[in-house]
Amino acid sequence: MSKPIRKKFLILLFITICVITLLVSSRSTSFNPRPVVPEVFLRSVSKESITPLKNTKHFLVSAYMDQRVQGFDIRLIGMFRRDSVQELHCFFCCAGYTSETTPAKILQHSDNFGFPFVTTDVMCQIPKTCNATHVTLLTQTRPENGTEYVWLPIRNKKTNGGEEKRMDFTVCVSNLFGGYNNVLQFAQTLEMYRLLGVNRVVIYNTSCGPDLDSLLQSYSQEGFVEVVSWPIDKYMNPSRGWLFSEHGGDIHYFGQLTTLNECIYRSMERSRYVLLNDIDEIIMPYQHDNLKSLMDELQKQHPNVGSVHYACISKYVSHLFIKAYSHFFRWECSSLRTTSFPSITLNQVGGFTFLSGAGCLELIFWNMFTEKTLTDRLTIHTR
């Protein structure tokens, strides 16, 4: 064989070997979808409201379809330890098989009040060929062989916005704890909200007394109340206060900000408006018979406003902040009277009896710590 021919042969052989090597390498590193064994998978789906995230110090709460942010499809809500945030990857179950991973975008909420844990959103993109039903997060780019992961079901998968909403108003009440058992207060608040047109009240319960537990079970059976178990004290030391430097603990007020954010997304596809309240606070329209007529008027006047703060609509709404009033003020009913508003008489009993007294019904009161929100749920974004 002549030298030129031999040279060409060697070059061709080298190119062939390189191509074969590249093909073998690409096959070995490409992702092969893995079928899911139904029995094993069902055991791996989290049925808890708080789920520890494998290989991290973080906790996941829930996952919701949310395609309002360009480039993302899923929003996971969790509680992350601020000093241990690492790169994460989204991993999906796609109706019978697992997907490749996609990068996760971690959004820590700005309000942490100095506590080690903070409410955190994680945004994920679903792979194009995946009909995702469940999701989890990984600390590595590829799943480990033989490892069982805990999956979160993806909720609110219908996001076209065209379907008719089943409810107008949902009230989110965060964090019952400490064996709270004030049945009278709870019953009066729930019935007042029913009169005002609220369709459902969602309550996050760490612990409550036996009497209140029976009451909540009764309201749950009729569908007016939805109780979400919130055993946060099993996973961390939740604070009973709002500031770490004063109260200590792992997270602000039993994870209040996490539960309120979770409640907004829980209600996003089933309720037009979401009210964020404590049980001792009532939004009381004084120029309208109910909340729907109030919001219909406000919507006409402010069509581009999605969130209403109470202190900004005092022309329409009177506040009933019983706890704040009874702790900080000792005014007589007559001293609160104005030409525009009736006032309130407090009877210090097991609850608060605001439907009795000398014609007193409402109390006008707010300060920088008591501003609450009534929100069109589709306008909410973390950032």
TrEMBL record:
Major place of localization?
A: membrane
Superkingdom of the organism of origin: Eukaryota
For this UniProt record, give its keywords in alphabetical order, as a comma-separated list. Answer: Glycosyltransferase, Membrane, Transferase, Transmembrane, Transmembrane helix
Cite the EC number.
Answer: 2.4.1.-
The cellular location(s) given in this protein's UniProt record come to: Membrane
Q: What membrane topology is given?
A: Single-pass membrane protein
Q: Which InterPro entries match?
A: Glyco_transf_92
Q: Name one Pfam family in it.
A: Glyco_transf_92
State any single GO MF term.
Answer: glycosyltransferase activity
Write out the GO cellular component annotations. cytoplasm; membrane
State the family it belongs to: Belongs to the glycosyltransferase 92 family.
What protein does this entry describe? Glycosyltransferase family 92 protein
Task: Name the lineage.
Answer: Eukaryota, Metazoa, Chordata, Craniata, Vertebrata
